[in-house]
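In this section we turn from sequence analysis to structure. A common task in structural bioinformatics is to predict how a protein folds when a small molecule is present, because the ligand can shape the pocket around it. The inputs are simple: the amino acid sequence and a SMILES string for the ligand, here zinc ion. Study the lines below before reading on.
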Amino acid sequence: MNQPANKNYQQLCEHFQNISHFEHLSALGDWDQAAMMPTGGGEARGAAMATLAKHIHSLKTAPMLEDTIAAAEQESLSGEQQANLREIRYQFQQANIVPGSLVEAKTKAAYHCEQAWREQRSQNDWQGFKPNLENVLALTKEEANIRAAALNISPYDALLDKFEPGMTSARLEQIFGGLKLWLPSLIEQVQDQQQHQPSYAIAQAASDAQALLSRDVMTLLEFDFNHGRLDTSSHPFCGGVPSDVRLTTRYDVADFTSGLMGVVHETGHAKYEQGLPHKWRGQPAGNARSMAIHESQSLFCEMQLGRGSAFLKQLQPQLKQRLDCNLSHEQLLNIYSKVSPGHIRVDADEVTYPCHILLRFEAEKAIVSNQLAVADLPDFWSQQMQSLLGINTDGDYKNGCMQDIHWAVGEMGYFPSYTLGAMYAAQFKAAIERQLGSIEDLVANGKLSTIMGWLNHNIWSKGSLLTTDELVQHATGDTLNPAHFKQHLIERYLP
Amino acid sequence: MNQPANKNYQQLCEHFQNISHFEHLSALGDWDQAAMMPTGGGEARGAAMATLAKHIHSLKTAPMLEDTIAAAEQESLSGEQQANLREIRYQFQQANIVPGSLVEAKTKAAYHCEQAWREQRSQNDWQGFKPNLENVLALTKEEANIRAAALNISPYDALLDKFEPGMTSARLEQIFGGLKLWLPSLIEQVQDQQQHQPSYAIAQAASDAQALLSRDVMTLLEFDFNHGRLDTSSHPFCGGVPSDVRLTTRYDVADFTSGLMGVVHETGHAKYEQGLPHKWRGQPAGNARSMAIHESQSLFCEMQLGRGSAFLKQLQPQLKQRLDCNLSHEQLLNIYSKVSPGHIRVDADEVTYPCHILLRFEAEKAIVSNQLAVADLPDFWSQQMQSLLGINTDGDYKNGCMQDIHWAVGEMGYFPSYTLGAMYAAQFKAAIERQLGSIEDLVANGKLSTIMGWLNHNIWSKGSLLTTDELVQHATGDTLNPAHFKQHLIERYLP
Ligand SMILES: [Zn+2]
Ligand SMILES: [Zn+2]
């Protein structure tokens, strides 16, 4: 019997399929920890997850990989196989840079920090949180320095590269620098225009009723409940695997409106996962492209669809039925396009949200370059919030630098993806409108499936077969162009 | 620096600690599959769990183990360390007998079969279930034959040994043979005595209310919710790890009474897990002793405590509060000591339950020795049910041979543990009463903690430090003696 012509490539595929099985279990552990696990289970779970992370790391750094990848690169492969091999090499490189002992130490510290954070945040306990965070960030910096040396880039760029392959702080400073030029005055103009808008009394809504409404909304957005579920956790997220996507959300009994859009947002993430190419499940080419592209899908759902007039109109019967909500369509529209600087990033409106990212981007750069100590973070936070949004957070840690889970679990360099995602989402909207007509009209005419079809064809089903720039170019005819985001904000908020 | 005097033993401990981390993830996957996972996630999960099982198997059969165990056996160890080493060797031997490829194939087939069974059972779809079961049982027989050859015992004994180390079908036939001599006439006598008891109308109770009641009962039984949780699944079980025990149950809106005792039962399993020795967490000596000892703890909770007069009296206020239940204490007692032959093992009363086990014991022996084909199982089932309990199950597969999950997941040789557990539970009761006085009095006087303390001291905290016979001897002054079970049944049902 002949050997297949691409036996090295086939061997790599088998190896990475195997890795994906352990990553599946890791995703399950993450979800369970956030949504299900009792507090007392944290210590043992942390140890188990650390061992799992170490095992995955050892598989990604298996001694045979270097030669097998080199040999596979000489084999005759299809274009898609070549793309998969590129992603295999990327994963191998990323894993090889960092020693297994550091991976394990960081995972353990992150689990410990996150567990404690759940309690500490609600108690505004900065003093309790600080040493855990210092521990996690010290390991994160160690990782950044090792990555930087290996890739010959700056430590912060080395962290960015984990979430946005190819993205640099220089490019980000240009993009965010541009934002700074027009966003503050736009926020002012919108606030001026909205200053006479009344505020609306929002009736209490039980969590159970909101959970039913959430399922309605997910169904409307064509979420596949045969391949996923919705639960609650203190920090909403989308996890699991493409065949079994785990969404979580939280419900505020006093105000259902933010939770509702939270579900729309996470459903956008989930649709991307559920739409990843079947053919490439378990292979690196079958993964989501990047964090920013992921966020573009959630923000597309939330901002381009969810907060639009036509979608809110469709939602009204369910709001009445599930929550006995009597808000008019105009009131809903006003609520969901209200611009108002606030403390909490995940509750921020679309217009002020980038300010929360600018703050975190500056803080991360300063921490990683040792210009800002963790102990000084609360002051830095308050100063930046003051200057960007006129908000003082002195002593209010839970609504300040303790609000996010990211740093607690050692994820630095992730935050910029949120605003990049908002920009990509606006760019996709512009492309769809050029190709298929107004999104508002499509939704109003019951053609949500047409929009989902475009996203599936152009984004979801592409997995990581294209690079980010190729994907965006292919879908929209251009690489990232922040002008679409500005255009979108002006259209919606300064009509 | 000197090497520790027991470096081989220490190396084994580290290795098995590592294994326990992967087993932790496996337990999580099992729980999630039963209680949380959407159907469409089954295929990918099955593949991931098979890879995990294969990995655990490879760790338990690591080439270095044989020599390291032999070397450790020459080292200077404490009595407890020697016990741990004995359990390490047992696990190594058990794992080495079966090739990894068979473990993987069986795990995959079992997951596939179980997934389908969830739907098929409710649809009474024997024709759909049969080929899946044949597949799983063919692999189980293959395993039995391989184990039998290695251990030089019969294939069925080799399966028993997985759940009850040292137990043989010869000893079981003697024990069960004894049962057969007195149980049928006892069932008749009890039914005679109960024939004029009225049947009681039980009010409907919503699942949510039953779930709250379940938490009350678990709290009464001192379940630690900081280290565990309760959820629902189609087949109640107790899983997870000692620091995070996962109970599941099911609620019947039309009759809360069986679900309530189901929770008491599973809480008994959970208490055992939560009480396993902290010092030995993650080591083989820290595991539960055997399936029969596990079942003895759940049955002690259910039969010796839960269905007793004093416990039911304590429960009455909660029954009123949660379910608005107006049953009198006498009515509750009658309901919970009603003897009535029925189709379903898990719903069977304490007196007829062993008949369900006798049937399965006979069926398993016949299947493993190729005297019974899976295709003929429904007929065999109906005949046995007819002769043992006077019940015909022709065509009623869902309440016949499709009712249990065990065979669907390849667990043969497990069923006898249930009745062995009932016998051990009765023997523990007798020992407690000799040492501490009547269990009814202890419960009535608010001294449930005293009973829990006895179980913790004599059973839970011993883990696997003793053999089963040593454990029982140490706790009760005797090895297994079925006379206590007979005595218990006579006291309760023929007073
Ligand atoms: Zn998001
Ligand atoms: Zn049990």
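The mean pLDDT of chain A is 95. As an exercise, try to locate the residues that line the zinc ion site and compare them with your own expectations.
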